[in-house]
What we know:
The protein is an alpha/beta fold. The protein is built from 5 helices and 8 strands; from the N terminus they run βββαββαααβαββ.
Amino acid sequence: MIRARGLEKRYGRKRVLAALDFDVACGGVALVIGPNGSGKTTLLRLFSRLAAPSRGTLSVEVDRSKIGYLGHEPLVYRELTALENLDLYGRLYRIPERRERIGMLLERFGLWDDRGVRVASYSRGMTQRLALCRALLHEPELVILDEPYAALDVAGAALLDRELGSLAGERTLVVATHDPDRLAELATDRLVLA
């Protein structure tokens, strides 16, 4: 699904990624590991086509509309409710039977009771759960998650563990994490950035 050869990314004179070779097979679970500042977020932005490589080749064999991306920003509207946010994204993705899909995700991620509450009043963990719903709403073939456990409590993290476990093998997952042991059983590939 993803093939990188000699992949490099620069911002001006600063080289963030250098001569990276990496493959992720369809249905694989790739962990991207490294300290802060090692280029994990940049790499995920390249994989999701939000940035272009400076050098090398990158092939992502999935239509951009079939990518689910969660970065550091949740990309939800704080002045809207959870239901309004997901309905907006559902209409943008032209999801058939979107109301059923939205209801199922809100229930699964423990947000059903707060579906009519403005996101501005959500805790950071609730906002992260909603962002995960947004990223998964259109049932993407490629799911790219940058530190998805950030701000989740124990129950939220366990919920995400179950969700990723159910997606493994069915979807291609690329997850940047500081806690690779959490996903070790699912991982088919690891990329360690220094």
